[in-house]
Amino acid sequence: MSGKEKVILAYSGGLDTSVCIKWLQEKYDLDVICVAGDLGQDHDGLEQIKAKALASGAIDCLVVDMREDFANEYLTSAMAANAMYENKYPLVSALSRPLIVKHLVDAAHAYGAKYIAHGCTGKGNDQVRFESSLAMLDPNMEVIAPVRDWDLTCREDEMAWAEEHGIEVPTTKASPYSIDDNLWGRAIECGVLEDPWAEPPADIYTMTVGPEVAPDEPTYVEIGFSSGIPCSLDGKKMPYLDIIYAMNEIAGKNGYGRIDMVENRLVGVKSRECYEVPGALALIQAHKALEDLCLERSVLHFKLGIEQAWAEQVYNGLWFSPLKEALDAFLADTQQCVTGTVRLKFYKGSCTVVGRKSAYSLYDFGLATYDASDEFDHDLANGFIQLHSLPCKVWAKNRQAMGAKMAQFSKVASTADEFTGQGSAVVAEAEDVTQTAANAVLN
């Protein structure tokens, strides 16, 4: 092995990382060691990706199966948080980045590498996620960001540079999409998708069928949960990893799981993003339904804000931050009794919760029913309402006594004045019509 300094490159075999190997050699005279992780993404075999990395000049390429860790450590936390950035997107890419960085740091320590490199662009979120995670795992490690630093201004330039240097890349001018995928779904951007008015072409989707060609009969599935984690499918015990695969297939075949959104990136730009997340969306929906049954009201309501804070922390690349760890502790505590079964119904692009049950259910039929078996004490309602509204009632009396202008009263008064004015105008118009008619008769 040479005496050159070493750099660990996060390698996917895509356009950006494919050109990074040669560029790191030419620009910095570094020995490049690649790390290719299997996170459940679509590929023809990571050994082929390794062979490509070595053929491109890397001195070694580590192939790491990260799927079990991804499901059991990262996606369990995401499930507890019902993680949806901007309440829409289940954080496909953001969830994988900290795990990848963890393996990059391990490789750097093993090889004695001074640098870690990634293929992120200068206006994307992933550069922040990679480098923030790295700063928290090894603050002394130096970062190289070739795609951000070099003078290639667009993907077309990258493709031309790759062709000039004999580097085979999967992206072509005819199919210019940038795709990142893993167990949790697919993120698709670039090309025609950069126009927010353009309907996404059908060829961007691989995990889901179009709802119009989905089966004509609904599909039902029962998902069992233990302490908030999916543990069975239709009564059969299964590892969480296998359930994710199965739910991607079931939901995808029924045309469910497509998202087309304008997203607010961390770096300050709005971006049109398309996602395929059939299993993730379905599992989160089922998990929420079980929480509705098992969590006490104030915990459930407070948890909504924690979920959004958690999603923002992860989206912003702060997986290893102290705040995110504290949020994890709260969320883990809420999941102790989220155990039970949820029944989902898939039909032509829709997913509906049609049943839920749990030994920890807080739903009491005797309190909820309106029939003769009703156990709710209606006589308590009057006093409850008086106490519930008492502070606002005291406030209203005080403000009225002081002659303060109260917005709601002013609004009612102005609305009444508006209607009165309209009524006067109608009366005046009617009087004009009557007078005109009388004049016509007299003439």
Summary?
It contains 14 helices and 14 strands. With 443 residues, it is α/β, with parallel strands linked by helices.
Furnish the topology, listing elements before pairings.
Blueprint lengths: L5 E5 L4 H14 L2 E8 L7 H10 L4 E6 L1 H14 L11 H20 L3 E3 L8 H12 L4 E3 L1 H4 L5 H10 L13 E5 L2 E5 L29 E8 L2 E5 L2 E2 L2 H14 L4 E7 L5 E7 L1 H17 L2 H19 L6 H13 L5 E8 L2 E8 L7 H4 L11 H22 L5 H36 L1
Parallel strand pairs: 1-2, 1-4, 2-3, 4-5
Antiparallel strand pairs: 6-7, 7-12, 8-9, 8-13, 9-10, 11-12, 13-14
Helix pairs in contact: 1-7, 4-5, 8-9, 10-11
Task: Provide a descriptive summary of the structure in words.
The protein contains 14 helices and 14 strands. By secondary structure, it is α/β, with parallel strands linked by helices. 47% of the residues lie in helices and 18% in strands. The N and C termini lie far apart (116 Å). The strands form three sheets. Strands 3-2-1-4-5 form a five-stranded parallel sheet, with helices on both faces. A five-stranded antiparallel sheet has the order 10-9-8-13-14. The longest helix has 36 residues, at 407-442. It is globular, with a radius of gyration of 30 Å.
